[in-house]
Protein backbone atom coordinates (compact mmCIF):
# COMPACT_ATOMS: atom_id res chain seq x y z
CA UNK A 1 0.00 0.00 0.00
CA UNK A 2 2.72 2.42 1.01
CA UNK A 3 4.74 2.18 -2.16
CA UNK A 4 1.67 1.96 -4.37
CA UNK A 5 0.32 5.46 -3.93
CA UNK A 6 2.72 8.35 -3.58
CA UNK A 7 0.19 11.09 -3.02
CA UNK A 8 0.89 12.39 0.46
CA UNK A 9 4.37 10.98 0.70
CA UNK A 10 7.31 13.30 1.26
CA UNK A 11 10.61 12.64 -0.51
CA UNK A 12 13.45 14.50 1.21
CA UNK A 13 15.59 16.62 -1.05
CA UNK A 14 17.22 19.99 -1.49
CA UNK A 15 16.03 21.05 -4.94
CA UNK A 16 14.65 24.46 -5.84
CA UNK A 17 11.11 23.12 -5.52
CA UNK A 18 11.88 21.67 -2.09
CA UNK A 19 13.23 24.96 -0.82
CA UNK A 20 10.34 27.08 -2.07
CA UNK A 21 8.09 28.59 0.53
CA UNK A 22 5.09 26.29 1.04
CA UNK A 23 2.80 29.26 0.49
CA UNK A 24 4.31 29.82 -2.95
CA UNK A 25 3.81 26.21 -3.89
CA UNK A 26 0.26 26.11 -2.63
CA UNK A 27 -0.75 29.35 -4.32
CA UNK A 28 0.74 28.32 -7.65
CA UNK A 29 -0.91 24.93 -7.49
CA UNK A 30 -4.23 26.44 -6.46
CA UNK A 31 -4.30 28.65 -9.54
CA UNK A 32 -2.86 25.95 -11.75
CA UNK A 33 -5.86 23.79 -10.93
CA UNK A 34 -8.11 26.54 -12.30
CA UNK A 35 -6.21 27.43 -15.42
CA UNK A 36 -5.96 23.78 -16.47
CA UNK A 37 -9.64 24.08 -17.34
CA UNK A 38 -9.00 27.02 -19.63
CA UNK A 39 -6.74 25.13 -21.99
CA UNK A 40 -8.46 24.16 -25.23
CA UNK A 41 -5.87 24.02 -27.99
CA UNK A 42 -2.90 21.77 -28.56
CA UNK A 43 -0.46 24.60 -27.93
CA UNK A 44 -2.18 25.75 -24.74
CA UNK A 45 -2.05 22.20 -23.41
CA UNK A 46 1.63 22.05 -24.34
CA UNK A 47 2.29 25.23 -22.37
CA UNK A 48 0.76 23.73 -19.23
CA UNK A 49 2.44 20.39 -19.74
CA UNK A 50 5.78 22.10 -20.19
CA UNK A 51 5.29 23.93 -16.91
CA UNK A 52 4.29 20.75 -15.07
CA UNK A 53 7.10 18.66 -16.52
CA UNK A 54 9.66 21.38 -15.86
CA UNK A 55 8.57 21.50 -12.20
CA UNK A 56 8.72 17.74 -12.02
CA UNK A 57 12.26 17.62 -13.39
CA UNK A 58 13.42 20.43 -11.08
CA UNK A 59 12.41 18.40 -8.01
CA UNK A 60 15.17 15.88 -8.90
CA UNK A 61 12.92 13.09 -7.73
CA UNK A 62 13.42 10.13 -10.12
CA UNK A 63 10.74 10.38 -12.82
CA UNK A 64 10.18 6.66 -12.74
CA UNK A 65 9.36 6.92 -9.04
CA UNK A 66 6.76 9.61 -9.69
CA UNK A 67 5.16 7.83 -12.64
CA UNK A 68 5.12 4.49 -10.85
CA UNK A 69 3.58 6.18 -7.85
CA UNK A 70 0.73 7.37 -10.01
CA UNK A 71 -0.16 3.79 -11.08
CA UNK A 72 -3.59 3.73 -9.43
CA UNK A 73 -4.36 7.02 -11.11
CA UNK A 74 -3.45 5.67 -14.57
CA UNK A 75 -6.51 3.44 -14.41
CA UNK A 76 -8.72 6.42 -13.73
CA UNK A 77 -7.17 8.36 -16.57
CA UNK A 78 -7.60 5.40 -18.94
CA UNK A 79 -11.17 4.95 -17.79
CA UNK A 80 -11.95 8.63 -18.40
CA UNK A 81 -10.53 8.33 -21.90
CA UNK A 82 -12.64 5.29 -22.79
CA UNK A 83 -15.75 6.84 -21.29
CA UNK A 84 -15.34 9.86 -23.53
CA UNK A 85 -14.78 7.65 -26.56
CA UNK A 86 -18.15 6.04 -26.01
CA UNK A 87 -20.19 9.01 -24.88
CA UNK A 88 -19.08 11.85 -27.14
CA UNK A 89 -20.57 12.02 -30.64
CA UNK A 90 -19.16 15.07 -32.31
CA UNK A 91 -17.16 15.28 -35.54
CA UNK A 92 -16.96 12.56 -38.13
CA UNK A 93 -17.33 8.86 -37.60
CA UNK A 94 -13.92 7.21 -37.70
CA UNK A 95 -14.67 3.54 -37.03
CA UNK A 96 -17.70 1.42 -36.34
CA UNK A 97 -17.32 -1.42 -33.85
CA UNK A 98 -20.39 -3.56 -33.13
CA UNK A 99 -22.71 -0.66 -33.67
CA UNK A 100 -20.64 1.73 -31.58
CA UNK A 101 -19.38 4.63 -33.58
CA UNK A 102 -16.16 6.27 -32.53
CA UNK A 103 -16.16 9.91 -33.53
CA UNK A 104 -13.10 12.06 -34.22
CA UNK A 105 -14.41 14.58 -31.65
CA UNK A 106 -14.47 11.81 -29.06
CA UNK A 107 -10.80 11.08 -29.46
CA UNK A 108 -9.89 14.74 -29.13
CA UNK A 109 -12.20 15.17 -26.14
CA UNK A 110 -10.87 12.00 -24.53
CA UNK A 111 -7.30 13.16 -24.89
CA UNK A 112 -8.06 16.61 -23.57
CA UNK A 113 -9.87 15.43 -20.46
CA UNK A 114 -7.30 12.73 -19.65
CA UNK A 115 -4.56 15.28 -20.09
CA UNK A 116 -6.25 17.65 -17.66
CA UNK A 117 -6.62 14.88 -15.18
CA UNK A 118 -2.98 13.87 -15.52
CA UNK A 119 -1.73 17.43 -15.11
CA UNK A 120 -3.86 18.02 -12.03
CA UNK A 121 -2.67 14.91 -10.29
CA UNK A 122 0.95 15.37 -11.26
CA UNK A 123 1.14 18.92 -9.99
CA UNK A 124 -0.72 18.33 -6.74
CA UNK A 125 1.36 15.27 -5.95
CA UNK A 126 4.48 17.36 -6.50
CA UNK A 127 3.37 19.54 -3.58
CA UNK A 128 3.27 16.68 -1.08
CA UNK A 129 6.37 15.05 -2.56
CA UNK A 130 8.49 18.12 -1.95
CA UNK A 131 6.91 19.65 1.15
CA UNK A 132 6.88 18.19 4.67
CA UNK A 133 3.43 17.95 6.24
CA UNK A 134 4.47 20.43 8.90
CA UNK A 135 5.50 22.99 6.25
CA UNK A 136 2.11 22.55 4.62
CA UNK A 137 0.46 23.10 8.01
CA UNK A 138 2.49 26.27 8.59
CA UNK A 139 1.62 27.48 5.11
CA UNK A 140 -2.08 26.86 5.63
CA UNK A 141 -2.03 28.59 9.00
CA UNK A 142 -0.37 31.62 7.52
CA UNK A 143 -2.65 31.84 4.50
CA UNK A 144 -5.80 31.41 6.58
CA UNK A 145 -4.66 34.15 8.93
CA UNK A 146 -7.12 36.76 7.57
CA UNK A 147 -9.98 34.45 8.59
CA UNK A 148 -9.13 35.19 12.22
CA UNK A 149 -11.12 38.37 11.85
CA UNK A 150 -14.31 36.35 11.50
CA UNK A 151 -13.32 34.27 14.57
CA UNK A 152 -12.22 31.26 12.57
CA UNK A 153 -9.90 29.24 14.87
CA UNK A 154 -6.89 29.26 12.56
CA UNK A 155 -4.23 28.65 15.21
CA UNK A 156 -6.19 25.83 16.83
CA UNK A 157 -6.73 24.18 13.47
CA UNK A 158 -3.01 24.32 12.68
CA UNK A 159 -2.06 23.00 16.11
CA UNK A 160 -4.55 20.15 15.73
CA UNK A 161 -3.06 19.28 12.38
CA UNK A 162 0.51 19.32 13.64
CA UNK A 163 -0.33 17.23 16.72
CA UNK A 164 -2.15 14.70 14.54
CA UNK A 165 0.89 14.52 12.28
CA UNK A 166 3.15 14.03 15.27
CA UNK A 167 1.03 11.18 16.62
CA UNK A 168 0.52 9.24 13.38
CA UNK A 169 3.77 7.22 13.72
CA UNK A 170 3.17 6.73 17.45
CA UNK A 171 -0.30 5.32 16.85
CA UNK A 172 0.97 3.17 13.99
CA UNK A 173 3.55 1.61 16.31
CA UNK A 174 0.83 1.11 18.86
CA UNK A 175 -1.47 -0.56 16.31
CA UNK A 176 1.28 -2.96 15.44
CA UNK A 177 1.92 -3.75 19.09
CA UNK A 178 -1.77 -4.38 19.76
CA UNK A 179 -2.21 -6.51 16.66
CA UNK A 180 0.73 -8.67 17.74
CA UNK A 181 -0.65 -8.94 21.25
CA UNK A 182 -4.05 -9.95 19.90
CA UNK A 183 -2.55 -12.36 17.37
CA UNK A 184 -0.70 -14.07 20.19
CA UNK A 185 -4.07 -14.51 21.89
CA UNK A 186 -5.36 -16.22 18.77
CA UNK A 187 -7.05 -13.44 16.82
CA UNK A 188 -6.66 -14.18 13.13
CA UNK A 189 -6.32 -11.04 10.99
CA UNK A 190 -5.22 -12.60 7.72
CA UNK A 191 -7.30 -15.60 6.77
CA UNK A 192 -10.97 -16.53 6.72
CA UNK A 193 -13.94 -14.92 4.99
CA UNK A 194 -14.12 -11.14 4.75
CA UNK A 195 -16.82 -10.92 7.42
CA UNK A 196 -14.64 -12.76 9.93
CA UNK A 197 -11.66 -10.59 9.17
CA UNK A 198 -13.74 -7.45 9.64
CA UNK A 199 -14.81 -8.75 13.02
CA UNK A 200 -11.17 -9.40 13.94
CA UNK A 201 -10.48 -5.68 13.63
CA UNK A 202 -12.70 -4.90 16.63
CA UNK A 203 -10.26 -6.19 19.26
CA UNK A 204 -7.65 -4.08 17.50
CA UNK A 205 -9.61 -0.84 17.39
CA UNK A 206 -11.06 -0.86 20.89
CA UNK A 207 -7.73 -0.85 22.77
CA UNK A 208 -6.32 1.60 20.23
CA UNK A 209 -9.14 4.07 20.88
CA UNK A 210 -8.92 3.65 24.62
CA UNK A 211 -5.22 4.41 24.59
CA UNK A 212 -5.62 7.30 22.15
CA UNK A 213 -8.08 8.98 24.50
CA UNK A 214 -5.78 8.44 27.44
CA UNK A 215 -2.92 9.93 25.46
CA UNK A 216 -5.03 12.93 24.53
CA UNK A 217 -5.88 13.59 28.15
CA UNK A 218 -2.28 13.35 29.31
CA UNK A 219 -1.09 15.47 26.41
CA UNK A 220 -3.60 18.17 27.26
CA UNK A 221 -2.34 18.20 30.83
CA UNK A 222 1.30 18.35 29.75
CA UNK A 223 0.51 21.20 27.36
CA UNK A 224 -1.23 23.14 30.09
CA UNK A 225 1.65 22.54 32.48
CA UNK A 226 3.93 24.05 29.87
CA UNK A 227 1.91 27.21 29.77
CA UNK A 228 -0.30 26.66 26.72
CA UNK A 229 -3.25 29.05 26.80
CA UNK A 230 -4.36 29.33 23.20
CA UNK A 231 -2.97 31.28 20.28
CA UNK A 232 -2.98 34.71 21.95
CA UNK A 233 0.46 36.21 22.46
CA UNK A 234 2.26 33.20 21.10
CA UNK A 235 5.49 33.46 19.15
CA UNK A 236 6.65 30.92 16.59
CA UNK A 237 9.92 29.09 16.14
CA UNK A 238 9.26 28.03 12.57
CA UNK A 239 9.19 31.07 10.37
CA UNK A 240 8.11 31.35 6.76
CA UNK A 241 10.08 33.78 4.64
CA UNK A 242 9.53 34.65 1.01
CA UNK A 243 12.83 34.63 -0.87
CA UNK A 244 13.87 35.79 -4.33
CA UNK A 245 13.25 32.30 -5.69
CA UNK A 246 9.62 32.54 -4.64
CA UNK A 247 9.20 35.75 -6.63
CA UNK A 248 10.92 34.12 -9.57
CA UNK A 249 8.48 31.22 -9.51
CA UNK A 250 5.50 33.55 -9.25
CA UNK A 251 6.79 35.44 -12.24
CA UNK A 252 7.30 32.24 -14.20
CA UNK A 253 3.82 31.15 -13.36
CA UNK A 254 2.31 34.45 -14.44
CA UNK A 255 4.19 34.15 -17.74
CA UNK A 256 2.85 30.64 -18.19
CA UNK A 257 -0.67 31.86 -17.52
CA UNK A 258 -0.21 34.69 -20.00
CA UNK A 259 1.08 32.24 -22.59
CA UNK A 260 -1.96 30.11 -21.98
CA UNK A 261 -4.32 33.01 -22.58
CA UNK A 262 -2.54 33.83 -25.84
CA UNK A 263 -2.62 30.29 -27.16
CA UNK A 264 -6.13 29.20 -26.25
CA UNK A 265 -8.96 29.78 -28.71
CA UNK A 266 -12.05 31.77 -27.77
CA UNK B 1 18.18 28.98 56.53
CA UNK B 2 17.35 28.75 52.86
CA UNK B 3 14.35 30.50 51.44
CA UNK B 4 11.04 28.69 51.11
CA UNK B 5 10.03 28.10 47.51
CA UNK B 6 7.04 25.83 47.80
CA UNK B 7 4.79 25.86 50.79
CA UNK B 8 1.74 23.68 51.44
CA UNK B 9 -0.42 24.82 54.36
CA UNK B 10 -3.00 22.29 55.59
CA UNK B 11 -3.86 21.27 52.05
CA UNK B 12 -6.72 18.84 51.46
CA UNK B 13 -7.94 17.68 48.09
CA UNK B 14 -10.57 15.40 46.60
CA UNK B 15 -11.72 14.95 43.03
CA UNK B 16 -15.42 15.42 43.78
CA UNK B 17 -17.92 16.07 46.56
CA UNK B 18 -18.74 12.41 47.03
CA UNK B 19 -15.21 11.17 46.53
CA UNK B 20 -12.82 10.26 49.34
CA UNK B 21 -10.07 12.71 50.24
CA UNK B 22 -6.92 12.10 48.20
CA UNK B 23 -4.87 14.47 50.34
CA UNK B 24 -5.63 15.07 53.99
CA UNK B 25 -4.31 18.14 55.75
CA UNK B 26 -0.83 18.12 54.23
CA UNK B 27 1.73 20.73 55.24
CA UNK B 28 5.32 20.85 54.09
CA UNK B 29 7.91 23.16 52.57
CA UNK B 30 10.48 22.83 49.82
CA UNK B 31 13.45 25.20 49.91
CA UNK B 32 15.55 26.88 47.26
CA UNK B 33 18.24 24.65 45.70
CA UNK B 34 16.94 21.69 47.61
CA UNK B 35 16.73 18.19 46.20
CA UNK B 36 13.64 16.73 47.77
CA UNK B 37 11.83 13.49 47.09
CA UNK B 38 8.23 12.53 47.64
CA UNK B 39 7.66 8.83 47.86
CA UNK B 40 4.59 6.70 48.31
CA UNK B 41 2.72 3.71 46.94
CA UNK B 42 0.19 4.01 44.11
CA UNK B 43 -2.74 6.15 45.18
CA UNK B 44 -0.93 7.65 48.15
CA UNK B 45 -1.55 11.15 46.78
CA UNK B 46 1.97 11.90 45.61
CA UNK B 47 1.08 12.71 42.00
CA UNK B 48 -1.80 14.87 43.20
CA UNK B 49 0.75 16.96 45.07
CA UNK B 50 2.65 17.51 41.83
CA UNK B 51 -0.48 18.61 40.00
CA UNK B 52 -1.43 20.96 42.83
CA UNK B 53 1.97 22.63 42.65
CA UNK B 54 1.37 24.18 39.26
CA UNK B 55 -2.33 24.63 39.30
CA UNK B 56 -3.41 21.67 37.22
CA UNK B 57 -5.61 20.98 40.25
CA UNK B 58 -6.83 23.26 43.03
CA UNK B 59 -7.11 22.29 46.68
CA UNK B 60 -10.51 22.39 48.42
CA UNK B 61 -8.92 23.38 51.69
CA UNK B 62 -5.68 24.98 52.71
CA UNK B 63 -3.35 27.14 50.68
CA UNK B 64 -0.35 26.69 48.43
CA UNK B 65 2.31 29.36 48.13
CA UNK B 66 4.91 29.17 45.39
CA UNK B 67 7.82 31.57 45.23
CA UNK B 68 5.91 34.00 47.42
CA UNK B 69 2.72 33.84 45.32
CA UNK B 70 -0.44 32.24 46.47
CA UNK B 71 -1.83 29.76 43.96
CA UNK B 72 -5.12 31.06 42.51
CA UNK B 73 -6.84 30.95 39.12
CA UNK B 74 -5.26 34.33 38.35
CA UNK B 75 -1.72 33.46 39.34
CA UNK B 76 -1.41 30.04 37.69
CA UNK B 77 0.23 31.36 34.52
CA UNK B 78 2.91 33.14 36.51
CA UNK B 79 3.34 30.11 38.74
CA UNK B 80 3.69 27.77 35.79
CA UNK B 81 6.71 29.80 34.71
CA UNK B 82 8.37 28.91 38.00
CA UNK B 83 7.30 25.29 38.17
CA UNK B 84 8.46 22.94 35.45
CA UNK B 85 7.07 19.43 35.27
CA UNK B 86 8.16 16.22 33.59
CA UNK B 87 5.50 13.52 33.48
CA UNK B 88 5.62 9.76 33.42
CA UNK B 89 4.80 8.87 29.83
CA UNK B 90 7.55 10.02 27.45
CA UNK B 91 5.25 9.95 24.42
CA UNK B 92 2.27 11.78 25.84
CA UNK B 93 4.12 14.97 26.69
CA UNK B 94 5.97 15.37 23.42
CA UNK B 95 4.04 18.06 21.54
CA UNK B 96 6.38 19.10 18.73
CA UNK B 97 6.96 17.27 15.46
CA UNK B 98 10.73 17.42 16.04
CA UNK B 99 12.98 17.75 19.08
CA UNK B 100 13.58 21.46 18.61
CA UNK B 101 9.90 22.17 18.01
CA UNK B 102 9.10 20.45 21.27
CA UNK B 103 11.65 22.46 23.23
CA UNK B 104 10.25 25.58 21.58
CA UNK B 105 6.64 24.80 22.54
CA UNK B 106 6.83 26.12 26.11
CA UNK B 107 8.70 29.22 24.96
CA UNK B 108 6.22 29.88 22.15
CA UNK B 109 3.44 29.78 24.72
CA UNK B 110 5.17 32.50 26.67
CA UNK B 111 5.81 34.72 23.70
CA UNK B 112 9.60 34.58 23.76
CA UNK B 113 11.36 36.17 20.76
CA UNK B 114 12.59 33.84 18.06
CA UNK B 115 16.32 34.67 18.39
CA UNK B 116 16.17 34.06 22.11
CA UNK B 117 14.36 30.77 21.48
CA UNK B 118 17.06 29.53 19.14
CA UNK B 119 19.72 30.40 21.71
CA UNK B 120 17.90 28.64 24.53
CA UNK B 121 17.19 25.57 22.42
CA UNK B 122 20.92 25.29 21.82
CA UNK B 123 21.81 25.65 25.48
CA UNK B 124 19.19 23.39 26.96
CA UNK B 125 19.68 20.61 24.44
CA UNK B 126 23.38 20.70 25.23
CA UNK B 127 22.62 20.53 28.94
CA UNK B 128 20.77 17.24 28.44
CA UNK B 129 23.22 16.06 25.72
CA UNK B 130 20.58 15.88 23.01
CA UNK B 131 22.04 18.60 20.78
CA UNK B 132 22.79 16.20 17.93
CA UNK B 133 19.09 15.27 17.67
CA UNK B 134 17.63 18.72 17.00
CA UNK B 135 15.65 17.75 13.91
CA UNK B 136 14.81 14.18 14.92
CA UNK B 137 11.16 13.13 15.08
CA UNK B 138 9.83 11.73 18.35
CA UNK B 139 9.12 8.21 17.10
CA UNK B 140 12.80 7.80 16.29
CA UNK B 141 13.88 8.49 19.89
CA UNK B 142 14.07 6.10 22.81
CA UNK B 143 12.00 6.69 25.94
CA UNK B 144 15.00 8.02 27.83
CA UNK B 145 15.87 10.42 25.03
CA UNK B 146 12.31 11.70 24.95
CA UNK B 147 12.41 12.32 28.68
CA UNK B 148 15.65 14.23 28.28
CA UNK B 149 13.98 16.40 25.66
CA UNK B 150 11.11 16.92 28.10
CA UNK B 151 13.60 18.09 30.72
CA UNK B 152 15.22 20.41 28.17
CA UNK B 153 11.89 21.94 27.25
CA UNK B 154 11.16 22.61 30.90
CA UNK B 155 14.62 24.12 31.49
CA UNK B 156 14.20 26.44 28.51
CA UNK B 157 11.75 28.58 30.49
CA UNK B 158 14.11 28.88 33.48
CA UNK B 159 11.90 27.44 36.20
CA UNK B 160 12.68 27.64 39.92
CA UNK B 161 11.42 24.16 40.64
CA UNK B 162 11.73 21.04 38.53
CA UNK B 163 9.21 18.33 39.37
CA UNK B 164 9.80 14.83 38.06
CA UNK B 165 6.48 13.03 38.38
CA UNK B 166 7.50 9.38 38.05
CA UNK B 167 9.57 10.51 35.09
CA UNK B 168 11.68 7.36 35.03
CA UNK B 169 8.93 4.82 35.73
CA UNK B 170 8.52 3.80 32.09
CA UNK B 171 12.23 3.64 31.25
CA UNK B 172 14.73 0.81 31.20
CA UNK B 173 17.53 0.85 33.80
CA UNK B 174 19.93 2.60 31.45
CA UNK B 175 17.46 5.32 30.53
CA UNK B 176 16.72 5.74 34.23
CA UNK B 177 20.40 6.20 35.09
CA UNK B 178 20.81 8.70 32.22
CA UNK B 179 17.88 10.76 33.43
CA UNK B 180 19.02 10.79 37.05
CA UNK B 181 22.50 11.87 35.97
CA UNK B 182 21.13 14.59 33.67
CA UNK B 183 18.86 15.86 36.42
CA UNK B 184 21.63 16.01 39.02
CA UNK B 185 23.84 17.91 36.57
CA UNK B 186 21.28 20.53 35.66
CA UNK B 187 20.19 20.95 39.25
CA UNK B 188 23.72 21.85 40.30
CA UNK B 189 24.30 24.02 37.25
CA UNK B 190 21.12 26.04 37.45
CA UNK B 191 20.43 26.25 41.19
CA UNK B 192 17.05 24.61 40.89
CA UNK B 193 14.90 23.02 43.49
CA UNK B 194 14.26 19.47 42.47
CA UNK B 195 11.27 17.41 43.54
CA UNK B 196 11.43 13.77 42.58
CA UNK B 197 8.13 11.97 42.91
CA UNK B 198 8.49 8.21 42.86
CA UNK B 199 7.49 4.88 44.33
CA UNK B 200 11.02 3.56 44.00
CA UNK B 201 13.13 3.96 47.16
CA UNK B 202 16.28 3.62 45.08
CA UNK B 203 15.60 7.02 43.52
CA UNK B 204 15.41 8.92 46.79
CA UNK B 205 18.99 8.08 47.73
CA UNK B 206 20.32 11.30 46.21
CA UNK B 207 17.71 13.50 47.84
CA UNK B 208 18.51 15.74 50.78
CA UNK B 209 15.11 15.21 52.29
CA UNK B 210 12.41 12.61 51.74
CA UNK B 211 8.69 13.04 52.32
CA UNK B 212 6.90 9.72 52.65
CA UNK B 213 3.21 9.71 51.75
CA UNK B 214 0.68 7.15 52.85
CA UNK B 215 -3.05 7.28 52.12
CA UNK B 216 -3.05 11.00 51.48
CA UNK B 217 -1.18 11.90 54.63
CA UNK B 218 2.44 12.75 55.28
CA UNK B 219 3.74 9.68 57.01
CA UNK B 220 7.29 10.79 57.62
CA UNK B 221 9.78 13.44 56.63
CA UNK B 222 13.52 12.81 57.07
CA UNK B 223 16.88 12.32 55.37
CA UNK B 224 17.16 9.17 53.21
CA UNK B 225 19.29 7.32 55.75
CA UNK B 226 16.69 7.63 58.47
CA UNK B 227 13.95 6.57 56.10
CA UNK B 228 15.91 3.52 55.00
CA UNK B 229 16.29 2.47 58.62
CA UNK B 230 12.53 1.97 58.95
CA UNK B 231 12.34 -1.00 56.64
CA UNK B 232 9.58 -2.93 58.29
CA UNK B 233 7.26 0.05 58.45
CA UNK B 234 8.01 1.02 54.85
CA UNK B 235 7.14 -2.46 53.73
CA UNK B 236 3.88 -2.19 55.61
CA UNK B 237 2.81 0.92 53.70
CA UNK B 238 3.47 -0.81 50.40
CA UNK B 239 6.93 0.33 49.37
CA UNK B 240 9.61 -1.93 47.92
CA UNK B 241 12.80 -2.04 49.92
CA UNK B 242 15.96 -1.79 47.79
CA UNK B 243 18.13 -4.87 47.62
CA UNK B 244 21.05 -3.27 49.50
CA UNK B 245 18.88 -2.34 52.46
CA UNK B 246 17.43 -5.84 52.64
CA UNK B 247 20.89 -7.34 52.36
CA UNK B 248 22.34 -5.28 55.18
CA UNK B 249 19.34 -6.20 57.29
CA UNK B 250 19.95 -9.89 56.64
CA UNK B 251 23.63 -9.48 57.46
CA UNK B 252 22.73 -7.84 60.72
CA UNK B 253 20.47 -10.77 61.53
CA UNK B 254 23.34 -13.11 60.76
CA UNK B 255 25.45 -11.37 63.37
CA UNK B 256 27.49 -8.92 61.31
CA UNK B 257 27.74 -5.57 63.03
CA UNK B 258 26.57 -2.82 60.74
CA UNK B 259 26.39 0.57 62.35
CA UNK B 260 25.58 2.86 59.45
CA UNK B 261 22.54 2.38 57.24
CA UNK B 262 24.00 1.75 53.77
CA UNK B 263 22.37 3.48 50.80
CA UNK B 264 24.42 1.98 47.97
CA UNK B 265 26.65 -0.94 47.04
CA UNK B 266 29.77 1.11 47.75
CA UNK B 267 28.62 2.17 51.18
CA UNK B 268 27.77 -1.35 52.22
CA UNK B 269 31.12 -2.57 50.93
CA UNK B 270 32.89 0.16 52.88
CA UNK B 271 30.94 -0.75 55.99
CA UNK B 272 31.79 -4.44 55.65
CA UNK B 273 35.50 -4.29 55.06
CA UNK B 274 36.13 -1.65 57.71
CA UNK B 275 34.16 -3.54 60.33
CA UNK B 276 36.18 -6.68 59.59
CA UNK B 277 39.53 -4.92 59.67
CA UNK B 278 38.89 -3.69 63.22
CA UNK B 279 37.98 -7.09 64.62
From TrEMBL, chain A:
<dbReference type="InterPro" id="IPR003339">
    <property type="entry name" value="ABC/ECF_trnsptr_transmembrane"/>
</dbReference>
<keyword id="KW-1003">Cell membrane</keyword>
<feature type="transmembrane region" description="Helical">
    <location>
        <begin position="117"/>
        <end position="134"/>
    </location>
</feature>
<keyword id="KW-0813">Transport</keyword>
<feature type="transmembrane region" description="Helical">
    <location>
        <begin position="65"/>
        <end position="87"/>
    </location>
</feature>
<feature type="transmembrane region" description="Helical">
    <location>
        <begin position="247"/>
        <end position="263"/>
    </location>
</feature>
<comment type="function">
    <text>Transmembrane (T) component of an energy-coupling factor (ECF) ABC-transporter complex. Unlike classic ABC transporters this ECF transporter provides the energy necessary to transport a number of different substrates.</text>
</comment>
<feature type="transmembrane region" description="Helical">
    <location>
        <begin position="28"/>
        <end position="53"/>
    </location>
</feature>
<dbReference type="Pfam" id="PF02361">
    <property type="entry name" value="CbiQ"/>
</dbReference>
<keyword id="KW-0472">Membrane</keyword>
<protein>
    <recommendedName>
        <fullName>Energy-coupling factor transporter transmembrane protein EcfT</fullName>
    </recommendedName>
</protein>
<comment type="similarity">
    <text>Belongs to the energy-coupling factor EcfT family.</text>
</comment>
<keyword id="KW-0812">Transmembrane</keyword>
<dbReference type="GO" id="GO:0022857">
    <property type="term" value="F:transmembrane transporter activity"/>
</dbReference>
<comment type="subunit">
    <text>Forms a stable energy-coupling factor (ECF) transporter complex composed of 2 membrane-embedded substrate-binding proteins (S component), 2 ATP-binding proteins (A component) and 2 transmembrane proteins (T component).</text>
</comment>
<dbReference type="GO" id="GO:0005886">
    <property type="term" value="C:plasma membrane"/>
</dbReference>
<keyword id="KW-1133">Transmembrane helix</keyword>
<dbReference type="InterPro" id="IPR024919">
    <property type="entry name" value="EcfT"/>
</dbReference>
UniProtKB/TrEMBL annotation, chain B:
<dbReference type="GO" id="GO:0043190">
    <property type="term" value="C:ATP-binding cassette (ABC) transporter complex"/>
</dbReference>
<keyword id="KW-0472">Membrane</keyword>
<comment type="similarity">
    <text>Belongs to the ABC transporter superfamily.</text>
</comment>
<feature type="domain" description="ABC transporter">
    <location>
        <begin position="6"/>
        <end position="240"/>
    </location>
</feature>
<dbReference type="InterPro" id="IPR003439">
    <property type="entry name" value="ABC_transporter-like_ATP-bd"/>
</dbReference>
<dbReference type="Pfam" id="PF00005">
    <property type="entry name" value="ABC_tran"/>
</dbReference>
<dbReference type="GO" id="GO:0042626">
    <property type="term" value="F:ATPase-coupled transmembrane transporter activity"/>
</dbReference>
<keyword id="KW-1003">Cell membrane</keyword>
<dbReference type="InterPro" id="IPR030947">
    <property type="entry name" value="EcfA_1"/>
</dbReference>
<dbReference type="InterPro" id="IPR050095">
    <property type="entry name" value="ECF_ABC_transporter_ATP-bd"/>
</dbReference>
<keyword id="KW-0067">ATP-binding</keyword>
<keyword id="KW-1278">Translocase</keyword>
<dbReference type="InterPro" id="IPR015856">
    <property type="entry name" value="ABC_transpr_CbiO/EcfA_su"/>
</dbReference>
<dbReference type="GO" id="GO:0016887">
    <property type="term" value="F:ATP hydrolysis activity"/>
</dbReference>
<dbReference type="InterPro" id="IPR003593">
    <property type="entry name" value="AAA+_ATPase"/>
</dbReference>
<dbReference type="InterPro" id="IPR017871">
    <property type="entry name" value="ABC_transporter-like_CS"/>
</dbReference>
<keyword id="KW-0813">Transport</keyword>
<protein>
    <submittedName>
        <fullName>Energy-coupling factor transport system ATP-binding protein</fullName>
    </submittedName>
</protein>
<dbReference type="GO" id="GO:0015087">
    <property type="term" value="F:cobalt ion transmembrane transporter activity"/>
</dbReference>
<dbReference type="GO" id="GO:0005524">
    <property type="term" value="F:ATP binding"/>
</dbReference>
<dbReference type="InterPro" id="IPR027417">
    <property type="entry name" value="P-loop_NTPase"/>
</dbReference>
<keyword id="KW-0547">Nucleotide-binding</keyword>
Amino acid sequence: MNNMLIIGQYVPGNSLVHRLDPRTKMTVIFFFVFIVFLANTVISYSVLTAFALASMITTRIPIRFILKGLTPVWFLIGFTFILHLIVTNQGTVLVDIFGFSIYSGAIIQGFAISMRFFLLILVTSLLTLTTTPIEITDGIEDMLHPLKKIRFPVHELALMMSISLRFIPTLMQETEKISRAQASRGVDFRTGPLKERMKAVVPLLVPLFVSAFKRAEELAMAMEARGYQGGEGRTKLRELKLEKRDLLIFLLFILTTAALFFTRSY
Amino acid sequence: MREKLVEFKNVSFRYGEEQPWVLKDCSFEIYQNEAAAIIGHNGSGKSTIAKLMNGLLFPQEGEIIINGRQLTQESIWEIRKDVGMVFQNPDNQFVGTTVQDDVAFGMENRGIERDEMVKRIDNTLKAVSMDSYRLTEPHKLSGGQKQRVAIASVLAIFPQVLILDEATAMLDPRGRRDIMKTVTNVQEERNLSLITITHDLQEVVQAERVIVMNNGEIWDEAVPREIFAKKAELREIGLDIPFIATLSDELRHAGVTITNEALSHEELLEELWTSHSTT
